[in-house]
Queue: 2 jobs
Job 1
Amino acid sequence: MNTPSATRSGLPRTRDLVRHYAGQLLEAGAEVSVTAIRARILEEHGVSASPNVVGDEVKQFWARTGPLLNARLKRPGIPEAVGQALDAVWEVALNEATAAYAIERSHYQQVAEQAQREATEARVEAEQATGRFADQERQIALLTEQVQRLNGQLDRGQAENEALRSELAELTAQHQSQDLRHREELARVDTAHAAEQERLSATHAAELARLQAVHQEENAALRAEVSRQADIFESTSNHLMKETSRVRDAARLETERLTRELAQSRDMVDRLRVQRSEAKEESAGFRAQADSAATQLQQLQKAHERLEARYEALLEAKVDGQGN
């Protein structure tokens, strides 16, 4: 089996490698498959071969190698059983290669579709980025105009700053002069203030001593007046207490006396009522006596009512006296 020729990069072409390793596998009696050949290429050359290229080249390999094998098997002297076994091996190898190629083709088609979707998303993101870049360019243009405008303002500001520095120097000189005059005036005011403070302190001390003396005199007089008023209050309080006790005793005695008179009056009224009842049962000869008794009874009743009124008045006076 010939060694595959190298390309300009120093590595053989993929198709040449596929044919080379397919021949090795066939001579070794191993299965000629896309997976085995890609593994050999990756192991020997460090290259991940395309499954589509490897699969296509494997098909072409079997297309070229199949007729040769058939012709070799049809030579005289090769048993028919060996030919059939080789036909079976050939069929299995071809089916395996086709199945492996279909699986890997499906896998790499999915990978290609995913890559296509990612490329589409990347294209959309690129378009969005382009739009953002255009917006940024416009913003940069606006910022450039603002920078130029600010540079102009800065130049004018520097000129104004120079003018302000000159004005500040003049104002500083004026301020220093005013500060000197202010300090001199402040020293004069401090001196006058100290003298006025001493005068006010002396006047305040004298006025304070006078007020303290007046306060002591007024306090002594107030204490004497408070003592006199206390004596008067104590004397008046004792007199009122004695008078209250005397009035209470007199009211008590008068109440007792009126109570006795009221009891006697009630007894007399009861006796007269009895006599009037007895007189009604007697003859008409005693009517005049009964009328006289009735008159007397009315008088006694009036006297009794007067006594009761006087008794109630004395009770009220007694209650008022105890409350006071």
Job 2
Amino acid sequence: MPKPVRTIYDLAQLAGVSAATVSRALAGHAVVNAATAERVRKLAHEHGFRPSSLARNLRTQKSGAIGVLIPLGHERTQHISDPFFMTMIGSLADELTQRGFDLMLSRVIPEQDDWLDQFIKTRRSDGLIIIGQSDQSGVLDKVANEYLPMVAWGAFIPGQTHCSVGSDNFLGGRLAMRHLIKQGSRTIAFLGNPRAIEITQRLEGARAEIAASSEDVRLIEVPTHLAHELSGEDIGSFLESCGKMPDAIFASSDMIAFTAVQALSVRGISVPGDVRVVGFDDLAIAQNMTPKLTTIRQDFATGAHQLVNCLLQRIAGKLTGSVVLNPELIVRDSG
């Protein structure tokens, strides 16, 4: 029976070359003669040999993993199973695995201001991607002064220290409000939790569009949780107590919009006949619900690509600027 090829040294003995040559050949280094490199790779394939990622990581002092953190300072009841998070995580997983990295996911409830410092000290990942800045922008800025390989998905604020990639939430708010005003809506409810920076910017965009409009438009601001089980209570309480029903709703997320449509339906209020509804995100649910949801699209695939690109440059020691993506109004049946 031939000796099994379990280590790089076994493969080197079989190929009649040094272990260093085998290592360089499998890594694709040009310093190895092309014929030798091809012979080594062919032997590795024939014997089912795979280089140990653990050994490689020990040599390079790299973990081969990227930490993906979801801080929930403003909305502690929100779950990773939320369709927004699942969409973003899926796009990131595709990008990272294509680049040869593992994804290490953590949902974080920030109890202390040093929560991010403590995570970095564990050295379990080569860099960090933060999904949603929540109310932790100050913490991200502080850490970014000393820790380079970190990028956050979400709002950009002029003067921030940390690198972010995200949609122009202010513009998205304006697009949603402009559409509703053009549709004839004059009493519009905004549903969202303004403790999150992104939600605040969407609200500010809505306000700005109303201020620029020549129409007499009233905006009702309704604090609303992101978690589905709580947003239903918030929206239900608003609908029961609002007196005159608004003729439109601008929901700060598609999931809130979905919950709003459900709450209106059980009360016999039709969408868009009685109340128009516009969401934000363009998740899969927006196209599958009834009626199909008019919403502001965030390009998650491009966002994930930009997040990973920026992070890999930062892991290599290069400073990168923030990226702001343009949102898009997607008109469907709800408003």
